[in-house]
Amino acid sequence: MRINTSRFGRIEVDAADILRFPSGLPGLEDCREWALLADSENDALGWLQSVSRGDVALAVVCPRRFVPDYQVRIPRSELSPLALTDMRQAQVVVVVGKTGTTLTLNLKAPIVINLEARTGRQVVASGELPLHYELSHHRTTLKKSA
Amino acid sequence: MLVLSRQRDESIMIGDNIVVTIVDIRGDKVRLGINAPPEIPVHRQEVYEAIQRENQRAARLEPGDAQGISRFAGRGNDGPTRPPEPPRR
User: Fold this and answer.
1) The domain spanning residue A112 has which CATH number?
2) Is the residue at A29 inside a domain?
3) How far apart are CA B44 and CA B46, in angstroms?
4) Closest to A65 (Cβ–Cβ): which among B61, B78, B86?
5) pLDDT tens, position by position, A29-79
């Protein structure tokens, strides 16, 4: 499958690698199919590229590489659409944003991917977690979630 | 908008499988209990709207903006949240 992207040019993605997000993502509800790409220059970074909209891509990272004490509690109702039979099938990534010149991570709404079923969903985690966790060299400890 | 008066422990039904119960009323705060099928997501509106805005903003990030993120990365392998291994571009 070929996707003409604004960031990466024309890319070829195996149809079997397409991830389906049946509910889309909040704010990007029309984007149901995504491809997860590795960044060629940056092994900590991935890109969720929309299949239908070449101009839409989200930078994603594995949260624990950046926030070692990140523990995510997700209500069962949020996870059940993913039909995970084993949590080892689940890959959790968070979306990278930017405030001014500071890169941020959306720890409140991680994306959970069922690697077996190739389905994904952005969930709302329980407790007090920041939507804009600022990346800095001074490690801040996450507030204990309520 | 349909407006209904309810007392504590009373409920309303939305369709035939969503029940919203007034669990507690204290001052200007109302606690609601919501029973809905798993395929119906329930969110606090302001949280959901903030996530919508954040996704739309994040979708404008360019590769150049995200370079440098590795400066903040720790060691890679941490079990279920290990880094993605998708096709290389």
Assistant:
1) 2.30.290.10
2) yes
3) 6
4) B78
5) 999 999 999 888 888 999 999 999 999 999 999 999 999 999 888 887 788
The residue ranges of every structural domain in chain B are: 7-62
Whether A39 is covered by a domain: the verdict is yes
User: Would the CB atoms of A93 and B43 count as touching at under 8 Å?
Assistant: no
Beta bridge partners of residue B33, listed in sequence order: B21
ipTM value for the complex: 0.89
Q: Which residues of A touch B17 (CB under 8 A)?
A: none
pLDDT given at position A132: 94
Report the pLDDT value the prediction gives residue A139, as an integer from 0 to 100.
60
Taking the Cβ of residue B45 and every Cβ of chain A, the question of whether any pair is shorter than 8 Å is answered with no
Query: Is residue A6 situated within a structural domain?
Result: yes
In a domain, residue A143? The reply is: no
What DSSP state is assigned to residue A80? G
Which phi and psi (to 5°) does residue B55 adopt? -65, -40
The domain containing residue A87 runs over which residues?
Answer: 2-134
Q: Does residue A130 carry a pLDDT above 80?
A: yes
Q: For residue A62, what are the contacts with CB-CB under 8 A and spacing of at least 6?
A: A44, A92, A93, A94, B76, B78, B81, B82, B83, B84
